[in-house]
What we know:
The structure holds two protein chains of two kinds.
Chain A: E1 3-6, E2 10-12, E3 18-25, E4 33-39, E5 45-51, E6 58-60, E7 68-73, E8 78-83, E9 92-100, E10 104-108, E11 112-116
Parallel strand pairs in A: 2-11
Antiparallel strand pairs in A: 1-3, 3-8, 4-5, 4-9, 5-6, 7-8, 9-10, 9-11
Chain B: E1 4-5, E2 9-12, E3 18-24, E4 36-40, E5 47-50, E6 64-69, E7 72-77, E8 86-94, E9 99-102, E10 106-110
Parallel strand pairs in B: 2-10
Antiparallel strand pairs in B: 1-3, 3-7, 4-5, 4-8, 6-7, 8-9, 8-10
Amino acid sequence: QVQLVQSGAEVKKPGASVKVSCKSSGYTFTSYGISWVRQAPGQGLEWMGWISTYNDNTNYAQNLQGRVTMTTDTSTTTAYMELRSLRSDDTAVYYCARDQVGGYGDYWGQGTLVTVSS
Amino acid sequence: QSVLTQPPSVSGAPGQRVTISCTESSSNFGAGYDVHWYQQLPGTAPKLLISGNSNRPSGVPDRFSGSKSGTSASLAITGLQAEDEADYYCQSYDSSLSGWVFGGGTKLTVL
């Protein structure tokens, strides 16, 4: 069965970086892209960007350009999202999702809580 | 840039039918992009409920249905059950962003 399993919760200080992993299993990793979505406490869903697991092409949300980098490791079928220069308003649950043809997430990771606090 | 607007909350009694609207503020819908719906139970990840405007993934009860007409899409839930109490999000594609865009979410309360 398709599964996306994310790394555990993180606590970071303002200005630091965080790297969240998303390990995929149960399907051919390079056949689907991975999108990242975050959700601040009590807020809605915000799309962060997308990476092709086939050729590592990326597309990032404009408001995160320059601070976010998405990568993949096909040998371990794992996708990564690194966010730099963290601010308090980056505190959120971060989700990875398998990006299905048609532009939606059909399987999601369980989420990773990133808390940014001094 | 596309903006998807949902009502903040809807409610209904067990057994009733409720609908959640998702209205797009630009011509994005006119470009033919599909709308998808997710259910998010408290403390859990979003779960795909409807894809491609009206398609239910395997395992989603047929009490859930989706439709789209013009610049509006709707999610209908019939035979409301207590376990349907959750947040619901619509999502589409925004060509100006080259990425996903979400509605603000609708909290469904089962009375």
